Amino acid sequence: ILTHLDTKKRVDVFALSIYRLVIFPKAQGHINEAVSDLFDRLDKRVTLVLTILAETFRSLSACQRASE
User: Fold this and answer.
1) What domain of life does the native source organism fall in (predicted)?
2) From CA 34, how far away is CA 41, in angstroms rounded?
3) Which stretch of 9-18, 23-32, 39-48, 53-62 has the lowest confidence by average pLDDT?
4) Range list of H helices, 24-48
5) What is the overall mean pLDDT for the chain?
6) What are the phi and psi torsion angles at 32 (to 5°)?
7) Considering the entire predicted model, what is its pTM?
8) Under a CB-based contact definition with an 8 Å cutoff, are residues 34 and 40 in contact?
């Protein structure tokens, strides 16, 4: 009986861990804030062209600085 209770506790802890990841992924650091903002903007039908261009420019600038 004691082994069964330990197993049930383990399953409960595992389930709570999964719920935490599903419900609070941003707070746990599993989802980048930029990704979360992207989905918020898609939901509001905001165009992402300027965001994508800015991110591309930032990435290319970082690559250029790294190669120097």
Assistant:
1) Eukaryota
2) 10
3) 23-32
4) 33-43
5) 71
6) -65, 145
7) 0.34
8) no
Question: Tokens at residue 50, please?
Answer: 């300027």
Q: Is the pLDDT of residue 62 over 50?
A: yes
pLDDT of residue 57: 86
Distance CA 36, CA 6 (A): 37
Instruction: Give every CB contact of residue 48 below 8 A, 6+ residues apart in sequence.
Output: 38, 41, 42
Amino acid at 64: Q
What is the gyration radius of the CA atoms in the chain, in angstroms?
Answer: 21
Sign of CA dihedral 26, 31, 37, 38: negative
Output the pLDDT for position 1. Answer: 47
Tell me how far CA of residue 6 lies from CA of 1, 2, 13, 63, 65, in angstroms. Answer: 9, 6, 11, 52, 55
